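hi! just following up on the protien thing from before. the input was this:
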Amino acid sequence: MKMNIEIDCSPEEARALLGLPDVTEANEAYVQNITKLMNGAGGIEQLQELGKQIAPMGQMGLQLFQQLIETGAKAAFSGVTPKDKK
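and the predicted 3d structure came back as:
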């Protein structure tokens, strides 16, 4: 017998249901620090070096991080924001 159960809840409710800690403040602090570091970088090479330092996830993780950084840099240098694309 196969049963499917669908639960409609927010991420906060899901964490409470599963007994997981609320890491919202830690996540916000992490994102703020990464944003400050990225804003201080002068070019793609510096961002790649930063990625190697903060993301010891192996080659695949670094490639994903590199794609993210390159996409963000292209958008930043072109002056196009995600809101403009809609």
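Residues 38 and 46 are 9 Å apart (CA to CA).
The two ends are 45 Å apart (CA to CA).
cheers
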